[in-house]
Amino acid sequence: DKEFYLPSKENLAAQSKNNNQVHNQTGIYEGFEEILETDRKLTFNSLEDAYKRYWWNKKNYKENKKILDELKNKIKVFHNKEDRDPNECYELVKAVFDWGGVWKARNEKHVNKIPKKDLLQQIEDGINEMGSQKPNLDVFDKKRSRMNAGYTKYYSLACEDVIIYDGRVGAALGLIARKFCEDRNKDKVPSGLNFRWGPAQNS
Question: pLDDT band at residue 4, thresholds of 50, 70 and 90?
């Protein structure tokens, strides 16, 4: 069994424990709320078990996927337009950041400082690099484009074969890579697993 510490009671707390439909859909077990009140951690038996208990913004995996699929479609349609409205880009960025719980935390103030036409250009530049087989990471220097826990969510919806890659995802993949090396008695991380990672709230 693996223990996973939960980052936010507000985002992860279940609805009423009497709501059997929620429990059946998510796999969240009886007493979930009480556990959050005490040691703030859950125990999973496997990745499949963790998937079944997925819970974000008081919604299960299926409900969140529906929201993200709708956002992805809107973003794809928008960026395929010849005439793209900077105001619409701003609203899409805000919607994605809101879903990810990172709008109010840090990004609202920063994004609102950027002229909307510049924000659109920065997003477009970021999409172009993220879609490249040899991206120029220097583009993400906070002046031309930006990369953090909010923007990675947007690029994951706007680009093909791009995942949400925030600090928690990086840490989880790093743990898997470490376990791989330990199981095979490797004293050096193979180049294919030696990926970049940044701590939470870091850009």
Answer: very low
Q: What pLDDT sits at residue 71? A: 98
Give the pLDDT score at 27: 45
Cα–Cα distances in angstroms (integers) from residue 118 to residues 123, 143, 150, in the given order: 9, 10, 17
How far apart CA 183 and CA 180 sit, in angstroms, is 5
Q: How big is the CA angle at 172 (ends 171 and 177), to the nearest 5 degrees?
A: 95
Cα–Cα distance for residue pair 6/32, rounded to 1 Å: 12
Decide: helix, strand or coil at residue 174.
helix
Range from 39-48, 59-68, 147-156 carrying the lowest mean pLDDT: 39-48
The predicted model scores a pTM of: 0.75
The pLDDT of residue 1 is above 70: no
Q: Are 149 and 166 in contact (CB under 8 A)?
A: yes
Q: In the numeric block, which tokens belong to residue 98?
A: 């809101």
Which residues make Cβ contacts (< 8 Å) with residue 75, sequence separation at least 6? 92, 96, 154, 157, 158
Could you give the C-alpha distances from 143 to 79, 85, 113, 139, 166, in angstroms and in order?
21, 21, 12, 8, 20
Strand 41-44 to strand 2-5: parallel, antiparallel, or no bridges (unpaired)? antiparallel
- Look up residue 161 and give its two tokens: 């074969």
What does the buried/exposed string (b/e) look like for 91-122 if buried means 16 or more CB atoms within 10 Å of the residue's CB?
ebbbbbbebbbbbeeebeeebeebebeebbbb
